[in-house]
Write a structure and sequence with these properties.
Rossmann fold, alpha/beta, 5 helices, globular
Amino acid sequence: MGQSQFTRPDLDTGPQFKKVDLSTLSSHPPIVESADKAPGWTALWPNEAATQAFAIKLAAALQTWAKGRDARIELCGNLGSGKTTLVRHLLRAAGVQGRIKSPTYAVVEPHQVGSGDKAWPIWHFDFYRFNDPQEWEDAGFRDIFAGPGLKLMEWPDKVAGQLPAADWVIAIEAVDEDQRRVHITAGTPLGQSWLQSWTQGATHAD
């Protein structure tokens, strides 16, 4: 993972989206996780392969946790910290096919995995260009948040006071060009139950 892969994207992944061979994970330094930093969970990702591994695990967990497919997840961090990279790996792991466009200009990009009764709507928001939290209300996003589906939100601070409580807040910090420090906190009782399950799973995997 070089610096360019954590640079804020323009429109879509195209050839810029780098597939990471999971078979190489064993050759990377181990992911350092902390299960005892209550009330959250902390990890140090040594490279993008670790980001992808986390996304695959989270995509699978969301489909097994109670109401996990309707989770509200905020992603926080400075420009270039890797928020969009994580979302793209998460969307791929969830089963999104084809181009994955960045919502930088459109503010929201809708996706759907499956069809019929098994359809899973996923909404990717990027509020970076909002100058007033009221823009969230004016854009009519309240209806989306009242409906089913996973909501992934970048730059939630731009619409402070408008968003419903996030089930999870994933904060990402760039340690250097490759490493990312991640901290997850829960903002709802449901999110707390997921975090407890996640933490127990991480502990058992050690």
